[in-house]
Inverse folding.
């Protein structure tokens, strides 16, 4: 079918151009290639389509039938292809993203106003989602995830450096319950834990002790599947919560939170933006990624 479709394209261009040589120039190929494709189409159909003489080309009766039937349909297909190409190259329209809240706060929020000022015709639709998402099935152009949670078979671009963890609590909580000096001390504290949405597994609390990575599993005084709730509860004095340090920089700067066990915290993988291969040439996405990498989170 692909050979027939290509042959019809050549046939229609010969008719439009009036000669094999002119059709070859339009199609960007040699005249022998055009002649070969036309002959292949005639063999496939089983009839002669163009009567060729030394001075002219004339449509046969079969050629006129093919022109009348295939011409309009092929033009519609060509127009649709051009529209699709234009949509992919457009610098205005909607870009749909699935983003964990932490990635939004670290990567997007700091540059959002500047991006909107630079590209006022691009409208971002951002869906906050902590769980893994099939972005193709759900109709998203791209998603954000940490490097250890990327979907397979996707194109991925790194947006941040590795991200250090933070265990933090309010000054009031630390004044009342004391400051842990060793990761094991957390077993005696009120701890605010996070549960992964997709796997329902409680996130590990990992520390570097004596050159080794160790896991501490304190009971969850509170358990959330939303990092915003973890941070809010820590700010409200409900206990010690885990997050990425970049997420709580504002709270640390203004004193609403204080970190503990800083010498023992570890780094986590960077945030990436990922998308299917078919979106590689989407101009809206390219502009967005380029802007994030130029203005973004310290890459």
């Amino acid at each position: 079918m692909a050979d027939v479709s290509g042959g019809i394209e050549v046939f229609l261009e010969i008719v439009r151009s009036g000669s094999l040589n002119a059709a070859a120039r339009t199609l960007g190929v040699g005249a022998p290639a055009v002649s070969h494709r036309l002959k292949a189409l005639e063999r496939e159909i089983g009839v002669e389509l163009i009567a060729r003489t030394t001075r002219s080309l004339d449509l046969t009766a079969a050629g006129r039938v093919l022109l009348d039937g295939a011409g309009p349909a092929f033009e519609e297909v060509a127009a649709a292809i051009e529209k699709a190409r234009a949509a992919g190259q457009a610098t205005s329209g909607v870009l749909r993203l699935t983003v964990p809240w932490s990635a939004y706060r670290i990567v997007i929020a700091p540059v959002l106003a500047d991006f909107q000022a630079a590209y006022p015709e691009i409208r971002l639709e951002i869906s906050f989602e902590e769980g893994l998402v099939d972005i193709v099935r759900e109709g998203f152009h791209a998603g954000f995830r940490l490097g250890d949670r990327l979907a397979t078979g996707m194109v991925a671009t790194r947006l941040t450096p590795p991200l250090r963890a933070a265990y933090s609590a309010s000054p009031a909580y630390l004044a009342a319950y004391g400051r842990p000096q060793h990761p094991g001390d957390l077993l005696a504290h009120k701890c605010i834990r996070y549960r992964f949405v997709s796997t329902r597994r409680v996130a590990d609390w990992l520390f570097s002790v004596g050159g080794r990575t160790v896991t501490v599993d304190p009971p969850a005084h509170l358990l959330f599947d939303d990092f915003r709730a973890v941070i809010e509860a820590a700010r409200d004095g409900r206990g010690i919560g885990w997050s990425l340090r970049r997420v709580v920089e504002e709270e640390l700067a203004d004193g609403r939170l204080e970190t503990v066990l800083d010498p023992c915290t570890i780094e986590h993988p960077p945030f990436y933006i990922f998308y299917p291969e078919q979106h590689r040439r989407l101009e809206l996405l390219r502009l967005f990624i380029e802007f994030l990498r130029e203005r973004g989170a310290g890459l």
